[in-house]
Amino acid sequence: MLNNFRHHLYTDFVFGKDAEKSVGKELKKLGATKVLIMHDSGKFLYDTGLLDAIKKYITDEGMAVVELGGVLPNPRLSLVRKGIELAKAEGVDFILAIGGGSTIDTCKAVGMGCCYDGDVWDLAVDRSKVKKMLPLGVVLTYPATGSESSTGAVISNDDGEFKIKTSMGGDMCRPTIAFENPELTYTLPKYLTACGVCDMYVHILERYFSPVNFGSMDYMAEGLLRALIDFGPKVLAEPDNYEYRSEIMWIGTIAHNNTVGVGRPQDWCTHGLGHEISAMYDTAHGATLTIVGPHWMQYVYKDNIARFARYAREVYRIDEADDEKAALAGIEATKEFYKKMGLPTSFKEAGLPTDGIEHMAHQAAAIKPNGVMGCMKQLHEEDNLAIYKLSIE
Description:
By secondary structure, the chain is of the alpha/beta class. The protein is 49% helix and 10% strand. It is built from 16 helices and eight strands. A hairpin with a 6-residue loop joins strand 6 and strand 7 (164-169). Helix 11 (285-300) runs antiparallel to helix 13. It is globular, with a radius of gyration of 20 Å.
């Protein structure tokens, strides 16, 4: 049974071929006068002419443009602070992200920081301080994180010897408008495409693995997971197939705007553990999830064998009457799907050192209230370390 909830999908979606060409007219309708465009300075933006085209769509409608590039994967707090300084100095009243999750999250943090008098990192430490964000638009070129309509952002604090990666945000942090043209994703490298698909997959799992069944939410989640298992390998084989790219792009959006998460407790341990790998080794986010995800399953499944058995039967169509055998077969099938997508399922496969797992286990706990995360099984620091150890080989 669904618990009480409120769910406001604030984002206006412009989806399909040439969606980005309406960016100027749409931002003008929203009252923008000076737009800060942020991006990763990637070759794609210049070789395709997309960046210049977006600028022209905006300036043709009488708005001014300010630009800041240099966004990196696992977006850095240092660039967020630079963006806030620039936006305030220029009197920006609208932000536009061109890119994927790292760019969008950077823009969200900049937008929040522009509406806060203290240091923006305060908003990551204490979400209750987030009260407002500048209006944000997105031209999505890398579907993965779902940040184009989600409530949060993930930022890496690159101060000091050890890095910290954590989330920030709130309901007011959904972008105002998102332009989604699947054609803009045709040239994404296979590895990044695979990371995106698996990030979407785990976004759904974080909501699906609740202690009890949740009716329609479960059926929706299971359908989306099956769709990713179907379309994921297909899009790797045919990267310029519009049908496959459009399916992946839209699943990425709904996987993380809480459409399949309302009214239920959510886990988020896989992301919590994965974030620390990104912070420590600057590993692609999607790959960190495939490294620890199956081992989190292995560690917690006995706390709710029936739930994992349902997952195996409904998502992977495993025909096994015994619940524990079905659950274990589902975990193995998940691992094989990740491998089929070309992603690692251990530190060893990823070529990562393991000298930092004690620090990561501590940090994953330290940034959570009371040092605990998860709803399928509450994880403490010692549990985090045990899962990292399972993930080594």
